[in-house]
Amino acid sequence: MPPRRSFLTLGAGLAVAALSRRTHAQTNRISEGKETIAMLGTGKMASVLGKGWAAAGHTVIYGSRAPGDTRVTDLVRESGARASATTSKDAIARAGMVMFALPWEPVKDLLPTLGDLGGKIVMDPMIHIPPTLKEVDATGCNPVSVGEQLQSWLPGAHVVKAFNTIAAKTIVDPARTGRPISIALAGDDAAAKTRVAKLVSAFEGLEPLDCGPIRAARYIESLLLLSINYSVANKGKRIEFFFRAHVT
Ligand SMILES: NC(=O)c1ccc[n+]([C@@H]2O[C@H](COP(=O)([O-])OP(=O)(O)OC[C@H]3O[C@@H](n4cnc5c(N)ncnc54)[C@H](OP(=O)(O)O)[C@@H]3O)[C@@H](O)[C@H]2O)c1
């Protein structure tokens, strides 16, 4: 992994410089091993992650309900030569890793239409906001997380909770927060987490943090409570999460 730089000052000039360094860092990583990633959805998260991973040398296949729509073909063009779009089922059949960049609510009904996910690494950035949490009631925390639920529905897949604690716009420009951001991971398969951690590191300024088995998804997802409460208390201002291990 390349050395991390510190982000002391924000501003347009630095953002441009950061972008150029990021592109250089991503180019250097192209030879380190490439994944084929089915990117389910073509919204905010799919767009930033898909473009970033394609720029880092991975193959990105967007899975969309409307792969021929102009907004999807535009996204494919903007993602470069390593990107394409098809149906979600076809994208999954051709990929080893699957990113569920989808709203959580329709997923249960979608799963039977997606084909065989056995043996695939499934990345889950999804957030479920219970109605009580929308009213900022901290007791609305789910007893079982989205990540655990998804793993129980897909016992043959390796679910890794990832990217749910960061805003899409910060993934493209982590320098705006002033320092590297931790991306908390949770999953039962160590090898799957290692591969997802490499995809986190494809974005300079993001750092993977292994938080343990998929059960830890409930703790990671609970950070949303903190994030929303902070935002409400601070006139819509957002926080991002930086975790630092003790130096031993
Ligand atoms: N945005 C963020 O900053 C952020 C941060 C952390 C976590 N997340 C989580 O990441 C996930 C994606 O967020 P997002 O902001 O990218 O959402 P989004 O912009 O609304 O995009 C979701 C995509 O999912 C597909 N989709 C929407 N409804 C669907 C349905 N009923 N059935 C099948 N596919 C459907 C659509 O793609 P097609 O129309 O091409 O099928 C859509 O572009 C969510 O679970 C969200 O909570 C988001």
Instruction: Give me the strand/helix succession.
Output: HEHEHEHEHEHHEHEHEH
Low-confidence stretches: 1-31
Count up the helices.
10
Q: Which range does the strand content fall in?
A: 15-25%
Taking the sheet with the most strands, its summary is: 8 strands, mixed
**Class per helix and strand makeup:** alpha/beta
Distance between the termini: 21 Å
Q: Please report the total strand number as a whole number.
A: 8
Mean pLDDT: 85
Rg (C-alpha, Å): 18 Å
- The strand line-up of the biggest sheet is 3-2-1-4-5-6-7-8
Bound molecules: NADP nicotinamide-adenine-dinucleotide phosphate
Shape: globular
Helix content: 25-40%
Folded structure, characterized:
The protein has 248 residues and is of the alpha/beta class. 39% of the residues lie in helices and 15% in strands. The chain has ten helices and eight strands. It has helices spanning 12-29, 44-55, 70-79, 88-93, 107-110, 131-134, 146-153, 168-172, 190-201, 217-233; strands at 36-40, 59-63, 83-86, 97-100, 121-124, 158-161, 181-187, 206-210. An eight-stranded mixed β-sheet has the order 3-2-1-4-5-6-7-8, with helices on both faces. The model is unreliable at 1-31 (pLDDT under 50). NADP nicotinamide-adenine-dinucleotide phosphate is lined by residues 41-46, 64-66, 72, 101-104, 106, 110, 125-127, 164, 167-168.
Question: Which SSEs are present, and which pair or pack?
Answer:
Blueprint: H1 12-29, E1 36-40, H2 44-55, E2 59-63, H3 70-79, E3 83-86, H4 88-93, E4 97-100, H5 107-110, E5 121-124, H6 131-134, H7 146-153, E6 158-161, H8 168-172, E7 181-187, H9 190-201, E8 206-210, H10 217-233
Bound molecules: NADP nicotinamide-adenine-dinucleotide phosphate.
NADP nicotinamide-adenine-dinucleotide phosphate binds at residues 41-46, 64-66, 72, 101-104, 106, 110, 125-127, 164, 167-168.
